[in-house]
Design goal:
Amidase signature (AS) enzymes, 8-stranded mixed β-sheet, 14% strand
Length: 485
């Protein structure tokens, strides 16, 4: 069997269907690579190999009978640790959840298995999925395959690292603050933050949490844009009670090439900071698109106060996760701390505290403003087909587990910036319920990958993925980390 470490999932499925090798052969190949690289990366942290081998064997027998067990038949893949996989723990990196073993698969996992995917393990996450680095007391630290001591990002850091390292063929993650998009940029892979609620999140949560958080979505990560489209095809659509009446029909892309596309490009913005290694590549891409006949506006003006948009995103994102942020005693302490805040304190830490303790009226007023912004986004995408911007403020950077997230600094062209401020670039799509595909676009002078975030109108998921596929074909595709190629 030819090396398949960096093949796309689509290619692996096609080759298994043609009989070039079996599902069990593909599984054993990735398991051996996992055994070899795990001590260095620590990306895949929970496995059920016996069950995966049984499933792969069943697929091989079905193919031998002339059956087609689904479009992902035989593809070995993993999912983020936060998804329930029957028989495996779902801890979200919390010591207190070590014994929380799932009894059934999350809806996403059910659908992936139904499409023939062989789900053999789970990828590492930060505690409560709340960090741009990936470490926790249960499973330890995940390292980037792009260099010793570098972070793969978070919270789908294990997922992106595993894909870039070639130890899994496909991944599924989640995103409320860039948890798919940030790791995809830092590891040089593809990731898709879906339009809000098109993929069911049931089975992506801790015991006792039945209400899905606002803004949060689940979506795939891959080594090719085609894999993203296939993963969406087999996982999107209502589940449970909703499926009794509703059907999802995502609009097909209205373009096959770059010519004539109305592309808005925002390589940087005065309201935040982004390294030149990232913004220069977004600018370079904009110039390339103009040469290909796209109608490029760079830089574009957005139809709202961008700094206020960012602050609203911080407040509502924290409100969305506040239920799981602390227990009753912790909530009372947070209320007291908020009372002591100066009204003039608009630091990230202060706004996080405010978001975690919003009254219902405060939340309703902020949500009303969010709906106004969503209408402005809808108008924006009447005049523009896509918006391109960074997916993170920098390329992969050194791990730093010390202190609170808003106290950790990263280097932006020689100047420090709080790591958590990178979330600025995630707010556009998250607050607006919009789809966003992260595509790799360059290997920078430092030898590290960078990417572009492709944002489209709500439910334009297939269009943002199609654009990523065009870039993959005509501009830049996934590049394996040199040490692992």
């Amino acid at each position: 069997m030819r090396e398949i470490a960096f093949d796309s999932a689509t290619s692996i499925a096609r080759r298994i269907a043609r009989g070039e090798f079996g599902a069990r052969d593909a599984l054993e190949y990735f398991l051996e690579r996992q055994r070899r690289l795990h001590p260095v990366l620590n990306a895949i942290v929970a496995t059920d190999i016996a069950k995966a081998r049984r499933q792969a064997g069943a697929i091989d027998r079905a193919l031998a009978r002339g059956e087609r067990p689904g479009p992902l038949a035989g593809v070995p893949m993993t999912v983020k640790e936060s998804f329930d996989v029957a028989g495996l723990p779902t801890t979200w990196g919390l010591e207190a959840q070590r014994s929380n073993v799932a009894t059934r698969d999350a809806v996403v996992v059910e659908r992936l298995r139904a499409a023939g995917a062989v789900v053999w393990g789970k990828s590492n996450v930060p505690v409560m999925l709340a960090d741009w680095q990936t470490f926790n007391p249960v499973y330890g630290t995940t390292n980037s395959p792009w260099g010793a001591g570098l972070t793969p990002g978070g919270s789908s850091g294990g997922a992106a690292a595993a894909l870039a390292a070639g130890i899994t063929a496909l991944e599924y993650g989640s995103d409320i603050g860039g948890s798919i998009r940030g790791p995809s940029q830092l590891c040089g892979v593809y990731g898709h933050k879906t339009s809000y609620a098109i993929v069911p999140g049931r089975g992506h949560g801790l015991p006792g949490f039945w209400s899905p958080p606002e803004i949060s979505v689940v979506g795939p990560l891959a080594r090719s844009a085609a894999d993203l489209a296939l993963a969406i095809k087999v996982t999107a659509g209502p589940a449970g009670n909703d499926a009794r009446a509703y059907r999802l029909s995502l609009p097909a892309p209205a373009f096959t090439g770059f010519r004539g596309l109305r592309i808005a490009v925002l390589p940087s913005h005065p309201a935040t900071r982004v390294s030149r290694a990232v913004s220069d590549e977004v600018e370079r891409l904009g110039r390339f698109l103009a040469r290909q006949g796209a109608r490029v506006k760079m830089p574009v003006d957005l139809p709202f106060d961008v700094a206020e948009h960012d602050r609203l995103y911080v407040l509502l994102r924290r409100a969305a996760t506040s239920m799981r942020a602390f227990d009753d005693a912790g909530y009372r302490r947070a209320l007291a701390e908020r009372e002591a805040l100066s009204p003039d304190d608009r630091s990230y830490a202060a706004d996080q505290l405010r978001g975690n303790t919003l009254s219902h009226r405060e939340w309703m007023l902020l949500e009303n403003e969010r709906q106004r912004l969503r209408l402005l986004w809808d108008d924006f995408f009447r005049d523009h087909d896509l918006l391109l911007c960074p997916g993170a403020a920098t390329v992969a950077y050194p791990q730093n587990p010390s202190g609170r997230r808003w106290e950790r600094m990263i280097d932006i062209d020689g100047e420090p910036m709080a790591d958590v401020q990178q979330i600025f670039w995630m707010g556009f799509a998250s607050l607006g319920c919009l789809p966003a595909t992260l595509a790799p676009i360059a290997i920078t002078a430092s030898g590290l990958p960078t990417g572009v975030q492709i944002i489209g109108p709500q439910y334009g998921d297939l269009s943002t993925i199609r654009f990523a596929a065009l870039l993959e074909r005509h501009y830049h595709a996934f590049v394996p980390p040199p040490a692992l190629a």
